[in-house]
Amino acid sequence: MATDDRDVDSNQKLDENLLAALPEGGKVVSVKPSGQSDYCATYRIQVSLPGGTSQVFFAKEGTGAEGLGCIESAWSSEQATYSFIPEHVPRPIAKGTYKSNPDKHFFLAQFVDMIEDEIPRPEAYMGALAALHSRSMGKSPGGKFGFDVNTRFGNLEQDNAWTDSWEEFWTRQMSDYLAREAAIHSADPPHEELERLKPLFLEKVLPRYLRPLESDGRSVTPCLIHADLWPGNVKYMSDGDTVCVYDACCMWAHNEADLGVIRNPRYPLGKSYLKEYWKRVPISEPEEDADSRMIMYMMRSQILLSILYPRDLKLRDIFVANMRLLVERVEAEEAEKKGGTGKRMAAPQVRL
């Protein structure tokens, strides 16, 4: 067990259960805020060790039931990603509840120095992602989709109940997200276009782009996905070469579900990053649906952001525009098949 003999108020010293997770015989040198989080407090803890060396740790602290859910999500997700790509993920060390306050909970991990203001190059960024997907492919419990806990996007809980079918799993999640998005905007004026498009999206678009993945002899093999791989969660380590991947909200899923964020124009990633990924992992069949699938997957984070930040109505308009695009693509296909006058909207080619 480590000790905290710093000359600070007793309420600023580390809790006994957190100290027990630090190296035996260590002495806490400093505790400083680390990073930004809207839902948990985060700290950088420096500990001096017998023999004159020192180690640095990262701690995340959550309060109440919501905080406990965030801590459980962090612990399970970081353990899972670390088990497959340990060279890219800070080593998770412990989770627990404070002895001094049973309503507070913590997650402890190795602290990794990172370069904050530089987005990793495509080969580094996507190399880590491809490694996670490839190494975990086919290793989900029972070959199912889901996860062993309900993880968090920000503080939003996602239903990760185990499911045999990828179409069933993704449809359930998207239905839930759209219902929650509607509930949080219930006091706003009705969004007539969203109300028109929503049933078409759930009843036409999702079957159109999910079902072919599991039809005509094809199947989806679950792999572990990070599920929040925006550039804020992927940084170079201090060597400027190896990337650090963190803050996952994992699930066992179709690997391409992790590519929605790469496709998202909100982030400066795009074609060169996708090209690097496809070098390492083949596009799922049917390949001609790949762009539409990525838009569909991209909408997950867009809808969740609309829930997290409901006063920013532009976030709502963004996912509605993509919903409209996919509905129009599917309806144009249907019109073409019926011999109508609708002109089919060709999906952009993915191989670049």
Overall tally of structural domains: 2
Average residue pLDDT: 93
- Which spans of ≥5 residues are poorly predicted at pLDDT below 50? 346-352
Q: Report the oligomer.
A: single chain
Q: Counting H and I runs of at least 4 residues, what is the number of helices? A: 9
Strand content: 15-25%
Q: Would you tell me which CATH topology of the largest domain applies? A: Aminoglycoside 3'-phosphotransferase, Chain: A, domain 2
CATH architecture of the largest domain: Alpha-Beta Complex
Please give a handful of descriptors for the protein shown.
single chain, Fructo-/Ketosamine-3-kinase, 39% helix, globular, EC 2.7.1.172, 16% strand, disordered C terminus, Phosphorylase Kinase, domain 1, 9 helices, five-stranded antiparallel β-sheet, protein-ribulosamine 3-kinase, 12 strands, 352 residues, alpha+beta, three-stranded antiparallel β-sheet, Aminoglycoside 3'-phosphotransferase, Chain: A, domain 2, Kinase-like_dom_sf
Describe this structure in words.
This protein is α+β, with helices and mostly antiparallel strands. It folds into two domains: 10-111, Phosphorylase Kinase, domain 1; 115-337, Aminoglycoside 3'-phosphotransferase, Chain: A, domain 2 (Alpha-Beta Complex), CATH 3.90.1200.10. Helices cover 39% and strands 16% of the residues. It has helices at 16-21, 64-84, 122-136, 166-184, 192-210, 260-263, 271-280, 290-308, 313-337, and strands spanning 27-33, 41-48, 54-63, 92-97, 104-110, 114-115, 152-153, 156-157, 223-225, 234-237, 243-245, 251-253. The strands form four sheets. A five-stranded antiparallel β-sheet has the order 1-2-3-5-4. Strand 7 and strand 8 (156-157) form a beta hairpin.
